[in-house]
Each structure stands twice: as structure tokens, then as C-alpha cells.
Amino acid sequence: MNTHAISAAPATPPLATSEFRSGWKTLLLALAGVATSVSALLIYSLGTLIVPLSDALGWSKADLQLLVSFLAAGGAVSVNFVGWLNARYGMRAVTGVSMLALVLAFASLTLASSAIGWLYLGYFLLPFIGIGTTPVTWTHIVNLRFKRHRGLALSLVLCGTGLAAAALPPLLSAAVARWGWQAGYLSLGGLVLVFWLSTAWRNLPAQGVATNRTPTDGVDGIPWRQAVGSRSFWTCNIALALVVSALYGLTANTVPMLRGLGFSAATAAGIFSSFGVALIAGRIFVGALIDRYWAPGVAAIVLAMPAIGCALLLSADAHTPLALLVAATALCGVGAGAEFDIAAYLVSRYFGLRDYGRLFGMHLGLVTIGSAVSPFAFGALLKASGYHPLFMLCGGACVLGPALLLTLGRYPDLSKTETKP
């Protein structure tokens, strides 16, 4: 196994502000884009809309929870086509059509009746309708604009999901309380429309990264077919799928496990709140580190931190100090915050930007499939053996996945990549 030290990559010079001075508009555009992406809007609105939908239309809360599965299934398929569409027709056209169609789609959800199947179908189709609004598009424009400080730029932009998580619940709660559950979906469509009309249509690149361009056109990288056939690409996919699946298991089961140890609901929730704080801090901190050091080495350390958190939680009981439990969940949160921007960074550094959209989209699709399947395995394990084997499995995945990243080797010289017809 390749055991490059973190210092194996040439450290970049001290942080300069030139890229941020000239690229701050791109950062704000992408930040708003991530916050109003179809996935962020639907995921972070669901918790607020479940009770109003259940009360108004008679669906059980368990039935409404399944909307997440249909959303994940649609996202896993649709995300594979984002890069190809952007390259073929240009980001401005694809994202513009997606946003306007998304506005109409959100409006159509207000017509939902007592047949929940229609809402399931809507949540499955929405990722296709809003295909141009996914993080694939927004991370792509950041990668095109930033080079020396790409990691930090990506981490800042991907904090848009945190903005959505913070802003949507109070906004939708107020709208639903005043006008009913339909106002929730109309508010989501309104956010997309305002973003498109005010900013996005003027600032997104009009042209795509054509599939027949060469490095001399300013876009270096490995052709899609060559990248997909490489060991490095599948190493990234397998390693990060292991970590993401484990983090899904930890996110869903930490609070119930703490309740099982005898902690009150309020105490367990308070302990787990450190997960969210660490997620944001970890994302920004890791983004700055991977600009200066070899990213797989940084990733191997940071993505293994949840394994330490699992070990601490496995040894916990009702008398464990709260500070230790907070530290354990924070370690899990650091890993959760780092995974997404590490994935975007690794794809851009090892395979370039020539087919970045298609490659990152394929990666997200594969990881989404893994994270959608893992809850079934975790559920079966939980029923059969309880929380301890589940947390041991999650901890093991957070050791194996990061270890695989250490085999990636040095960054390739993408300027020497030749485009094959």
C-alpha cells in the first residue's frame, strides 16, 4: 500500500487573497446555489412539512418518511446526467431550464390529494426536473474559478446546506401557519425563482466544457472513459461510500442509543447538537488543509475520526461524563463535514475538470445508492444484535475507507493528459 505522508504533496504558499478578491461573486453564487438546490430544499423542508401534510391529508408520519427514499432514488439516477448536459448545452441553459421547471414542479405539489403515491412520484421526479441545480453544477464552477485555494472555496460553498437547514424550518413554519401546507411548497418555488431572476441567469457560464476540447483550451483532465476505467476512481468511490454509509448509520442511531443508556430526550439531543457544530467547523478546516497538504493524507486522518467517536460511544454507559459524549459525537461530525468537499476536491485533482461534472455526478450517484441501501442493513443488524455491533461496523468502515484513500498516490500531472478522440 502506498503510504505517502501528508507532506507528499507540495505545500501551497501561505493563503493569499487574490483568488477570493476576484472570485467572491462565484463563491456567493455557488453558496446560494447549493442552499437552493433541489436536494437541500426537499431534505431540509421535510421535517417542517410532515406534520401539516399528515394532519391535512391523513397520511401517517411513517408513510411520509418514505419520501426521503424516493428522493434518494431519483437523485442517484439523475445526478449521472448533470455533467453531460452541462457540457453539451452549457450550465446557464441547463440550470435555467431546471430552475424554472422546478418552480412549476413545486407549485404542482400543492395539488396533492389523499393518494400519497402521487407525492412519492413527485419526490422521485424532482431530482430529474431540478437536475441542473445539484451540487455538481455549483462545485464545477468553483473548481473552474479556484485552483490554489480550491479546497477552502469548496468547503465554504458547501456550507450552503447548513444555510438551508437553518433558514428553511422557520421560514416554512411561518408560511404554513399563515396560509396552510401548500404555502410551504410555494415558498420553496419562490426561493428558486428569486435566486434565478436576481443572480443565477447572469453569472452562470453560458458555454459548456465541450467534450472535444483539449488541455490547450484551458481545461485539463482525463477523458471520462479513461477515468472510469482507472483504479483511482473506484478507490475513491468505494472508500467514500464506506464512510458515508457509516455516517448515515451514526446520524440515525446516536440519539436512540443515548436514550437507551438512560439519557433524557433533551439531554441526548443536546449531546448530538455537537455533531452539527463540528460538521460546519470540520468542513471549513479540512478545506483549508487540503489546499496545503496531500488531500488523501488529510482525508485519512479526518475521515477516521468517527471511528474514535464510535469507540467512545461503545464504551459509554449512563455514568459517562457528558463532555466525553459530546466529544464523541463531535468527532463523528468532523468526518461528516469533511466527506463531501474531500470528494469534490479529489475528483478535480486526480481527474481534472475536462469531464468533472460527469465523474463527480457518477460518484455521487454511487455513494447515494450505498447510503440508501445501508439503512436496511443497519436496521436488520439493530434488530438482531442491538447497537454495539452496529457501531462496531460503522467504526470499522471509517477505518477501512480512509485507509483505501492512502493508496491513491501523488496527484497526476493533468497538463500532460492527451485527449483521445
From TrEMBL:
Gene3D superfamilies in the cross-refs: MFS general substrate transporter like domains
Pfam families: MFS_1
Cross-referenced SUPFAM superfamilies: MFS general substrate transporter
GO molecular function: transmembrane transporter activity
InterPro entries assigned to the protein according to its UniProt record, in alphabetical order: Dense_granule_Gra7_protein, MFS, MFS_dom, MFS_trans_sf, Proton-linked_MCT
Keyword tags: Membrane, Transmembrane, Transmembrane helix
One cellular-component annotation, GO: extracellular region
Span of domain Major facilitator superfamily (MFS) profile: 25-413
TM spans (from-to): 27-46, 66-86, 93-112, 118-139, 151-173, 179-197, 232-251, 263-286, 293-316, 322-347, 359-381, 387-408
Matches recorded under PANTHER family: MONOCARBOXYLATE MFS PERMEASE (PTHR11360:SF290), MONOCARBOXYLATE TRANSPORTER (PTHR11360)
The protein, known as: MFS transporter
Protein source organism: Pelomonas aquatica
Record lineage: Bacteria, Pseudomonadati, Pseudomonadota, Betaproteobacteria, Burkholderiales
